[in-house]
Every structure is written in C-alpha cells, then in structure tokens.
Amino acid sequence: MALSRRNILQAAAGGSALTVLAPASVVAHTPVRTVAFEGAGLYLYPAWGEPQPYLVVPTGPCLATLEFRDAATTLLLWTQSLSITGGFAGRLGGY
C-alpha cells in the first residue's frame, strides 16, 4: 500500500488498513504507556497530548540521533537525540 496523508491519519485514528502496533489511546496531556523505538518506521509522537504520525529514521554516530520526517512526503522536520525522545504513543505498521 502506498503511503498517503489520508492513510496515515486514518491509521493514527484507528480506522485504516495500516495496523497500529501499539495502543494510541491518548487523552489530552495525560501520560500513556509509551512504546520504545525499535528501528525506522512510522511512529505516533509524542506520547502525551495529541500524538501525530511521523516517519522516524535513526542517523548519526551509533544511530543515536533520530530524524523526524513528514510521514507522507518524507521531508525532514527535525532531528533529536534518542536519549531525550521519551517514548512514542504507538507504532504504525503494515505499509
């Protein structure tokens, strides 16, 4: 299945052919069970507030830095150290 913004947003909301590999039931500003980074893929971030889907790719020395990319266009949005990411609200699979 080709990724599109509609597929990604539907999956994040729980209504798509993409599979949510971890729960993403989030109440605004309420901490939830977080998912650890397990390699490149689509993740819901942050694990609080209103998580959004991002394509997350490891980079840098020892792959200790994560690139957060627009899930539909793969445009680089920002980079962040894996040590301060703080977990994800879920991981999307099946694409």
Quick recap:
This protein is 9% helix and 33% strand. It is mainly beta and 95 residues long.
Q: What do these coordinates show?
A:
A hairpin with a 5-residue loop joins strand 4 (65-70) and strand 5. This protein is globular. Strands 1-6-2-3-4-5 form a 6-stranded antiparallel sheet. Residues 22-29 have low confidence and may be disordered. The protein has one helix spanning 5-13; strands spanning 19-20, 41-45, 52-59, 65-70, 76-81, 90-93. It starts with a helix and ends with a strand. With 95 residues, it is mainly β.
Write the layout of secondary structure elements.
Elements: H1 5-13, E1 19-20, E2 41-45, E3 52-59, E4 65-70, E5 76-81, E6 90-93
Antiparallel strand pairs: 1-6, 2-3, 2-6, 3-4, 4-5
Descriptors for this entry?
9% helix, 95 residues, mainly beta, 6-stranded antiparallel β-sheet
